[in-house]
Amino acid sequence: MRKRVLGALGIGLALATFTACSSTSKAATTTTKAPDATTTAAPEVTTTAGPVMADGGKMAILFDLKGRGDHSFNDSAAIGLDKAKTEFKYDVTEQVRGGNDIAEQLKNAVDNKNKLVIGVGFAWGDEMKKSADANSGINFGIVDSVVDSPNVSSLVFKANEGSYLVGVAAALKSKAKHVGFIGGVDIPLIQDFFAGYEAGVKSVDPSIKIEVKYLSPAGDFSGFGDPVKAKTAALAQYEAGADVIFHAAGGSGDGLFGAAKEFSAKGSKVWAIGVDSDQASSVAADLAPFILTSMIKHVDVAVYETMKDAAAGKFKGGVRVFDAKSGGVDYSTTGGYVDDIKDKLEAAKKGIADGSIKVPSKS
Q1: Cα–Cα separations (whole angstroms), residue 7 to 30, 49, 188, 277, 361
Q2: How far does the chain reach from its first CA to its final CA, in angstroms?
Q3: Among 181, 188, 174, 186, which residue's Cα sits nearest to residue 295?
Q4: Which residues, in sequence order, are CB contacts of 354 under 8 Å at separation 6+?
Q5: Which residue, 199, 200, 159, is CA-closest to 324?
C-alpha cells in the first residue's frame, strides 16, 4: 500500500479539525478569482476510472471531529458540498468522526449503500484504503492524503505555497521583525505549512526572528481542537516580541485570534493570520480586525469538483493537485490590511506559478 500525507494545513488534519468559513458565512475574499467550480481546478494525474454514477445519488461526507462550524477546513468542504448537492441532486448523509471511530464511520457509509464517500482530512486515509479495496463499486474521495486505489480520488493541496505567500505578508507587516507560527500537531503535514511560511518570511528579510510552537506531538491530535492552549501559546509569542503569528492548528486557531485581540488591548496592535479559509469573514466580528490575512485552501472546490465528476459519470481515481498556479491555494484580502503590499504578494505568487520561486516542502 502506498499512502502518504501531503502538506496540503487548515491544516486546515483533518486539518479537519481544521478551520474554515461556514456555509452561511460570507464567501472568502481572495486576491484572485477562485478556481472556477465548473472547470477542472488544477492539474490532474489519474489512474483507472472508477464506477459510474448517474445524476447524483446517495453519498456520504465524512467530516473530521468538530464537523461544520470549525470556521475553516470542514466549513470550506461544506460550502462545496452544499453547492453540489443542490446542483446535482445528491441525497447526502453527513457523518462526523468522534475520535477512534474511523473504521466504524466508513463501514456505516458503505453499509448505507452510498455511491460516493468523501473523507475530509488525512485521518480517514488508512481505513479508506481498506474500504475502497473491498468495495470497488463505490467511489471515494479524500482531502489532504494520497490513497493508492483506483476508485479513490486523492485531493491534495500545496499548502506550503499558500503559506509562503502569508509568510511574505507577515514579514512585510512586522514592525518588530519578529513573527510567530503555531502548528496544531508536530507532523509533516503541518511542518509543510511552516516550511513555506518560513521561506516566505526569510525571502523578505533573513534576519527576522520566528517563534515556533506545536500544540501537541505526533500521534496526539488534540492540538487541532484546543483553542485555550493555542491562546496561551500565542500570548507567549506576543510577549516574546512577535507581532504577527500564523496558525496551522485547525479549530485551535480561535485561541490565536482571541490572544491577538487581548494583547492589542495593551496598546500595541498585533496581528494573526488565519488558515484554510478567509477566517476574517467567518469569525466573531470583534476578532476579524486582528486577522491580517488568511492562507486559503479551496477545499470547497475540491469537494464540488469530485461530486460533479461523479454525478456526470466521469469520476476518476488518482491524484488531483491544487496549487498556487491553479488558484487552489491563495491569500485573502478581507479588511484591506494587505492592500498596500498586494503588488509584492502578487509578484511572489507569480514567481511560484512560473517556477522562479521554489517553495520548500516537508511532505
Answers
A1: 21, 26, 7, 16, 7
A2: 18
A3: 181
A4: none
A5: 159
Contacts of 111 (CB under 8 A, 6+ apart): none
Query: What number of other Cβ atoms are within 10 A of residue 25's Cβ?
Result: 17
Phi, psi (rounded to 5 degrees) for 143: -95, 130
**pLDDT confidence of residue 55:** 60
Q: What local confidence, expressed as pLDDT, does residue 23 receive?
A: 30
Are residues 265 and 243 in contact, defined by beta-carbon separation less than 8 angstroms? no
Cα 141 from Cα 151, distance rounded (Å): 8
- Identify the pLDDT of residue 66: 77
pLDDT in tens, 20-59: 333 333 333 333 333 333 223 333 333 334 444 456 789 9
> Is 76 exposed, middle or buried, given 0-12, 13-18 or 19+ CB atoms closer than 10 A?
buried
* Ordered DSSP codes for 285-325: TTTGGGEEEEEEE-HHHHHHHHHHHHHTT--EEEEEEE-TT
- Given this model, what pLDDT does residue 26 score? 31
Q: 10 Å Cβ neighbour count for 336?
A: 9
Grid cell at residue 124: 480517514
* φ/ψ (deg, to 5) at 261: -65, -45
DSSP 97-123: --SS-HHHHHHHHHHTT-SEEEEESGG
- Stretches in the chain below the pLDDT threshold 50: 1-53
What b/e sequence results for 246-269 when a residue is b if at least 16 CB atoms lie within 10 Å of its CB, and e otherwise? bbbbbbbbbbbbbbbbebbeeeee
Report which residue type is found at 43.
P
* Residue 112: Cβ within 10 Å count: 13
Task: Check: pTM over 0.85? Answer yes or no.
Answer: no
Q: Which residue matches cell numbers 456520504?
A: 60
